[in-house]
Amino acid sequence: MKKALMILMVALMAGGMALWAGGQQEAESAESYPSKPMTLVVEYNAGGSTDMLGRAIASIIPKYMSQPMVVVNKPGGSGMIGVDYVLKSNPDGYTLGTTSSGPFTTVPLTQQSPYDPIEDVVFIANFTLGPIAICVPADAPWNDLNDLVKDAKANPGKLIYGQNAPGGTTHMAMETFRAAAGIDMKMIPYNSGSEVAAALLGGHVNTGTLSPAEAAEHVKAGTLKMLGVFNAERMTDYPDVKTAVEQGYDVQIAVPKGVFAPAALDPAKIKMLEEALEKVYNDEEFVAIAKKIGLGPELYWMNMEDSQKFMSGMYNAMKPVVESLGLGN
Amino acid sequence: MFHMIINGFVDILTVVNLLWIVFGTLLGIIIGAIPGLTATMGVALLLPLTFGMDTLPAISMLLGIYCGGMYGGSITAILINTPGTPAAAATSLDGYPLAKKGQAGKALKMAIFSSTVGGLFSALMLILIAPQLAKLALKFGPPEYFALVLLGLTVIAGISGKSLTKGLIAGSLGLLMSCIGLDPMLGMPRLTFGNIYLSSGLSTVPVLIGLFAIAEILENSEKIGVQGKKLTLHKISGDQRVSFKEFKSHFLTMIKGSLIGTYIGIIPGIGSGVSAFVSYNEAKRSSKHPENFGKGEMAGVVASESANNGATGATLIPLLTLGIPGDVVTAVLLGAFMIQGLTPGPLLFRDHGSTIFAIFAGFILINIVMFIFGLTGVKYFALVNNLPAELLYSVIFVMCAVGAFAVDNSLFNVLVVLIFGLAGYLFRKLEIPGGPFLIAFLLGPLFESNMRRTVILYDGNMLQIVKSPIAMFFLILCAISLFFIIRNNSQLKKIERN
Question: How far apart are CA A297 and CA B259, in angstroms?
Answer without folding.
Answer: 42
